[in-house]
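[step 3/7] fold_predict: job queued, chain A
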Amino acid sequence: MILVDNGSDDGCYEAVSEKYRIHHRIRLAHEPTKGISFALNTGLKYCTGTYIARMDADDICLPGRMAMQSQLLDAHPEIGLVSGLVRYGGEEINEGMMFYVDTINRLVDSEAIRKNMFVESPFAHPSVMFRKSLIEMYGQYSTEQVPEDYELWLRWKEQGIVMEKINQEVIVWNDQPNRLSRTHENYSRSAFENTRVKYLVRWLRQHVRPDKPIFIWGGGKFSKRKASLLEEQGIRIHGFIDVDENRTSDTKPIIHYSKIPPPDSIFILSSVSNRGKFEEIRSFLCSKGHKEEVDFLISS
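[step 4/7] structure written:
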């Protein structure tokens, strides 16, 4: 067990040093530079095992987690990361967080995880176990102003790393009001969006034929902002698809969803952020013969 002290000033470093100095299986690392990515990367330097399991100080690891996750990685060398279901915890109920937990708990197999990676992070960071070799091959956590875990998952997705989940609860994920994901700029909506767009641009360049015009599903302000961000990176957006027959645009054509061209004629990038709507869009497009990751991609 590697415990990382990230520049604390309340005496806990000294207290833990005294308490655990005789335990050869527990090591205490000190990282003076404030920030979770710096603390994580310092912890990684101390890790000598084949697998690395993540935890935060305020969450609870459920019995059997380490055994189940390591056994799956032992049995499946093609899998690089394994997570699991999480149990929502916390002093106050936050409906948005509960919805997010419910959403990611439905993403279990590697295909579902991969196809939803551009919607939001499919893992609770403290629930994952991954091969240390991935860090050695593709680098440590980013210390830039990004959500460090989501950026790492997108980086590994780009490299074709298979990521799975155990269909059992592995941690109690405590949602505290002062948690970094609520208070730090690295986890702001714009930070997530910029990180997502960076890897989305690279995915589109690699997977979408140059002769396929790209349309964004969604004609509102949020979708137009996504179009602008993509076009700033050199991805041409030909128009929008919307459910509102009366919506108009001065710059690009808007197609009503009932008049979407047949499969293989355009590429559709879903950009609807409303809760649960992306599943309706996926179901509709599949019912019309459009193939996911060939004719369309779900994003947020």
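[step 5/7] annotate
The chain is about 35% helix and 20% strand.
The two ends are 37 Å apart (CA to CA).
exit 0
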